[in-house]
Amino acid sequence: MKAIQHLRTINHHKWLVMKECFQVGLYKQGLLHDLSKYSPSEFLVGCRYYQGNRSPNNAEREATGYSKAWLHHKGRNKHHYEYWIDYSANPEEGIVGQKMPVKYVVEMFMDRVAASKTYKGAAYTDRDPLVYYEQGAAKLGKMIHPDTAALLHGLLRMLAEKGEKETFRYIRQNILKKR
Q1: Cα dist from 157 to 45, 50, 162, whole Å
Q2: Is residue 132 part of a domain?
Q3: How far apart are CA 162 and CA 170, in angstroms?
Q4: Which residues constitute the domain of residue 132?
Q5: pTM for the predicted model, two decimal places
């Protein structure tokens, strides 16, 4: 039963991201978003740790100390800032977040919105993705590039204050048109 529930969750999340990406003109990314979640190394772990109200990767991490599924996922999906962590060109800086291409920052934003909608269900508000970000990734310092963090945080704040329709319009007309 967990396998069916997990598949439904993945499909629902992927459907939401696809619809959101299509609304701003990111058609290819909408279609290809999170395909690695269907691979055995991610899907089977997701079934085992499925809970329905949060990512199975968190439960796997709590059980084993790390998440093999997450390590696989973030290494294959450019919309995760973790994909872009590398050694700095300046050896004194060590490992730092690299600046993400804008289209992947927008997909990351859509991913966070869809994840909040998926796990919050009817209780979702446009403020939820911002709250989740501020409780976690916003505290990462040099692991997320300052420009990437500023764009993502700005879009999440806009969503919380102005809503989805206005934020998606802004992304279409101001963020993605500049590319």
Answers
A1: 33, 30, 8
A2: yes
A3: 10
A4: 78-175
A5: 0.94
